[in-house]
Each structure stands twice: as structure tokens, then as C-alpha cells.
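Run log, item B.
One chain of 174 residues. Sequence copied directly from the ordering sheet:
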Amino acid sequence: GFAIADSTLFSIGFASAGAFAGTLSTVGGVACKVFGWTAGNGSFSDPANWSDVTDTSSGPPSNLDEADFVTGGGAVSGNGTVHMLAFDGFASWNILSTLTALGDVIIGQSSATDTNVNFGASGGIRSTGAAELATVATGSGSLDLASPNAIFTVAGQLTDGEFGTGHVRIENQA
């Protein structure tokens, strides 16, 4: 199901002054490594599916890192826990297992994008931070919770259409 914590502010079409600025996230004051997904379709835990864009470390990303899904789209299987999840590009991402962000989830963070995140029969995203869709004026981000067992939980604020066009679809008892 779709869950919002009792203390969460749920915003639709809300423009926030504190917009995502595209800087690296930090854990304990240390910049996270950023890993880019390179596989199209593949397992989150397979190191060959990742490229570290900040240095020469091998993947997969850990709970101290940022996982970026930005090119091509595809299906992501296998569970994984990272500090931050980012989905972008003219792409559709199908989450087949559970991905956990200990920080924020961003969907559609660059200009002129149309990014879609959807879920397989048992797919889900869990975040202990916030979730933001369409964080720039010319971007578009959508979250499609149409599978009966899809899970998307956010402990912080969910902002749909922070500056661009955001869409959230919930149906089929997700």
C-alpha cells in the first residue's frame, strides 16, 4: 500500500523555496559516493550494473551512497538500501523488489525530462526521508502505484510537482 506517516505533510503541486539544488547529499557531513545504474534490466546487488561517478569504487552502492537511475530505463530486481535514490531521464523504471532510501527519493530532477517509476507485483520503495517529483520547472516525474502489492512509503514530506509536472497514480489496492 501507499503510506504516509501521521506527521507527514502531503503536498500536490506545491512549489517549495527549499528546492533540490542538485548537490551531493551527505551522511554525517561526508559527501556520498554517487553510483550510476548502467544495466537497463538487472539485479541491484550485481556490481557490474553500477559505475561510481565520484571515484573508482565498485558497486553496488551502500547505505552511505546515492544510487542514480538516469539513462535508458529498465527493470531493477533485488533488494537494496542506499542513502538516496534518484530517478531521471526520459526513462521508465520498473522496480521489481524493494529499494530503501535512508534519505530522500527524487523522481525527475533535471530539465526536460519525463521520468516514470512503476512497480512490479512485489516492488516497492521505502524512504525514511522525503520524496520529491519534478524538482525543476521543465521536468516531469511520475509515480505509478498500479500493481496490487506495490509499496511506496515516505517518512517525510511527499511533494508532487515541486516545480515541474508531477503525477501520482494509485489504483488496484496498491
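Observations after the first pass:
- Confidence is low (pLDDT under 50) at residues 1-23.
- Residues 132 and 159 are 5 Å apart (CA to CA).
Flagged for discussion on Thursday.
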